[in-house]
Amino acid sequence: MNLSDVKDAFPILKQLENGQPLVYLDSGATAQTPVSVIDTIARYYREENANVHRGVYGLSERATDAYEGARSKVRRFLNAASDKEIIFVRGTTEAINLVAQTWGRRHLKAGDEVVITEMEHHSNIVPWQLLREELGIKLVVVPMTDDGEIRLADFEACLTSKTQLVSVVHMSNALGTINPVADMVQAAKKVGAKVLLDGAQAVPHMSVDVRALDCDFYAFSGHKLYGPTGIGVLYGKEALLDAMPPYQAGGDMIYSVTFDKTEYNVLPYKFEAGTPNISGAIGLGAAIDFVESIGLDTIAAYEHELLTYATRQLQTIDGLRIIGTAPNKGGVISFIVEGTHPHDMATLMDQDGIALRASHHCAMPVMQHFDVPATLRASFGVYNTHEDIDRLVAAVEEARTMLV
Ligand SMILES: Cc1ncc(COP(=O)(O)O)c(C=O)c1O
């Protein structure tokens, strides 16, 4: 698919919002869904809907093939070694909680250290705090600079012989910073720590190769990758997943049950208790087809150009301060406008058909670092255009004039 045709593939973007053509700039929260994904899900319910792995009849076999086909697509997408390493979960949050509650509970003990960064989403802070309460582990937080960057030296200074796990965000949702995760993995390996990467924001914007990164776990959500909500992925190295106890118990994750003893199913099913989100996984497979039809490198280059343009244009506005000025950023711009509250700005901009987020972005420690209650955040998707940026800038200017 050509970039010029991309917007047409998104029916929701054709509608008016408050009488104005919708400019959607909240893809960091959830990306819009292309018609190919919508049609794939509809076709599944029309033609293939049945439970997976259980039926010997044709319909169930087709549903199973489609569901497992989606798993293989994810495996290829991440360049994982085997389908066994791809666990379908509800999203990034569930993936991180799965690792905390299974690998974490089994391997961590009082005094062990888990390293995170100051720019984590709450989903990569709170699961470790729960373990801290339960097991007495120590949470070590790598500080970021005032540009919103993690310096490798600061990261390395937080690694000790007690570091068991490094769990860091690949790309920050609140700042757009892309962290030097390949170098971070290498440094973590030197002290023998395992590494989990939160890829929620990274996967829609750049190609990710888990084997090249050599991370142990990688988590992402389907809905930020132009797929449906309620589906996401935990990648884990096979040997690690194999040695982990199950997360939830129930159908599909068992091999045999008696009242005395239960044997668990093999990977990846050991971690997929109950009827999975079959249509979600198939929809995610279609979303991967969609981004691959454009090419992740093409997407990354295009969004970088949009980011550069938007940064330049927004900086012309009086009193506007960009929060997060790291040199290596993805398509996210957080900003505040002096003398205004982000919520008031976003409410006024909604009147102009501009959908952007005013919030702490589930990253309150980031807000604390910059001493702001919230920021406005424009986060881009592959469907955004230079015209969208012009409308954003005009709407910010207009709202500022009304409020200041
Ligand atoms: C960096 C990051 N991590 C984790 C999450 C949580 O994702 P989900 O709500 O899909 O589980 C998000 C969502 O905004 C995110 O941006």
What report would you give on this structure?
This protein has 404 residues and is α/β, with parallel strands linked by helices. The protein has 13 helices and 17 strands. The chain has helices at 35-48, 58-78, 92-107, 126-135, 152-157, 181-190, 210-213, 238-243, 278-294, 296-314, 342-351, 364-370, 386-403, and strands at residues 16-17, 20-21, 23-24, 86-89, 113-117, 138-142, 163-169, 194-198, 217-221, 232-236, 254-257, 262-264, 320-323, 332-337, 354-355, 357-359, 375-379. The radius of gyration is 22 Å and the shape is globular. The chain starts with 15 loop residues before the first strand and ends with a helix. Pyridoxal-5'-phosphate (PLP) binds at residues 91-93, 121, 123, 169, 173, 198, 200-201, 221, 362. Its cofactor is pyridoxal 5'-phosphate. GO terms for molecular function: cysteine desulfurase activity; pyridoxal phosphate binding.
Précis, in short:
Catalyzes the removal of elemental sulfur and selenium atoms from L-cysteine, L-cystine, L-selenocysteine, and L-selenocystine to produce L-alanine. It is built from 13 helices and 17 strands. It has 404 residues and is of the alpha/beta class.
Shape verdict? globular
Strand order of the largest sheet: 4-10-9-8-7-5-6
Low-confidence stretches: none
Describe the main β-sheet briefly: 7 strands, mixed
State which percent range the strand residues make up. 15-25%
Rg, Å, rounded: 22 Å
Remind me, CATH topology of the largest domain?
Answer: Aspartate Aminotransferase, domain 2
CATH hierarchy: architecture of the largest domain: 3-Layer(aba) Sandwich
Work out the number of β strands: 17
Oligomer: single chain
The CA-CA distance between the termini, in Å, is: 44 Å
Number of domains: 2
- Ligands, ions, cofactors: pyridoxal-5'-phosphate
The proportion of residues forming helix, as a percent range, comes to 25-40%
Protein name: Cysteine desulfurase
Function: Catalyzes the removal of elemental sulfur and selenium atoms from L-cysteine, L-cystine, L-selenocysteine, and L-selenocystine to produce L-alanine.
GO biological process, one term: cysteine metabolic process
GO molecular function: cysteine desulfurase activity; pyridoxal phosphate binding
